[in-house]
Amino acid sequence: MKNKFESNEEFLCKINKPDSKLLGKKGYCCSLDKDSDGVRYAFHVSTRKIVEVNDAFLALLKYSSEDVNDLYVEDIIVADLQEIESNINKILNHGLTEISLRQYRCKDGKMLFVESSFEIVNLYNEQYLIATIRDVTEWQQLQNRLRLAAQVFESASDGILVTDVEGVIQFANPAFLKNTGYSLEEIMGLTPRILKSGIHPDELYHEMWHSLQKNGQWKGEVNNKRRNGEIYSEWLVVDAIKNDLGQITMYSGIFRDLSERKKYEEKIKFHAYHDGLTGLPNRILFYEKMSQCINAAKRYNHIMGVMYVDLDGFKYVNDTFGHDKGDLLLQAVALGLRECVRESDIVARMGGDEFTIILPEMASYQEAEFVADKIQEKLNQNFNLLDCTVQISSSIGVSIYPKDGEDADTLIKKADNAMYQAKAAGKKTYRFSSNG
What we know:
The model is unreliable at 1-31 (pLDDT under 50). By secondary structure, the protein is of the alpha+beta class. The protein starts with 11 loop residues before the first strand and ends with a strand. The chain contains 13 helices and 19 strands. Helix 10 packs antiparallel against helix 11. The longest helix is centred in the middle third of the chain and has 19 residues, at 137-155. 36% of the residues lie in helices and 31% in strands.
């Protein structure tokens, strides 16, 4: 490679000074242009010792002139020695003149990103390299932040949507596309109105717009619509993005799909109010339903029935064939009871082998008799439980609102007492409560 410095008088000057820093030989010194804004230093190829620096080098890397006397390339370049020597070899023998990005270490330990270029000097059979470096730390940090932001944008589990100031979609991350079912090509140039479910009133969107203009942000739970028409819940945070002049230039929305959380909450709520074995309402939910039905009966002046059902012979099945067969029997009974009533009627399991039924709106007492007869017929039969067949019957007590009471406790107590009257009468039958 042609050596451009062998005759470069700007670099070499002939003087009679014994302390020349470049060669350590009388008559030569390195002129790295002390007044130049460029950051430059020279080092001996074989020893890698730095022999000359300019003031810009000292200022950038926080060294003093005295520090340079014992400074080597490996002290400032963040790389192992093998890599440094490999790069020197490439510069000397393979025409490498620039290294695009390298980390340098300042005296105080601070790291800088620099770009560097190299020129070769041959003097008295000794080789030197002059390095010119440019601090690109701020630029590199900006690139790193942009790269990190892009990675977060791409890998975020929450959906992210960016629009211009007119609300036209500019970007959407993979999570948003996955959650909504749209492709990027389908939504580019459109507005977020494609997600509207039609559930929310226009006032919600007016409030959103007002908050964005006044506070720069709106957040809340919304119901949106996927591409396939499915309605789903999500937590939405919308931010107005402003320039240095405080003018809104775009909007960003972060969408967190609440579908799984809603399902989990519904599951927890279901188990809190339903029997785990049969799926029927439990005692807590039964009393809530009773209160609602009584209020409706009072309001609309109609009668309602309450039934208490106890299984005859369940203990024998449980003790003889085991609890697993007993559980199967309870599940079969629960299904049978549901088949005996209307969709609007309520069947609950109070515990053990006891079930309750609310007939919330009856035209006459005979409707309760009709249901009781159906239950007797349904339960007084053989049940096939995998590898065994069992037979049971039922004893049923019935109370009527408002004849037998006007509150839940009274109606349930009287239905329970009537059920015991049915058992005392020989089981396998039903009894209505008396006024006593």
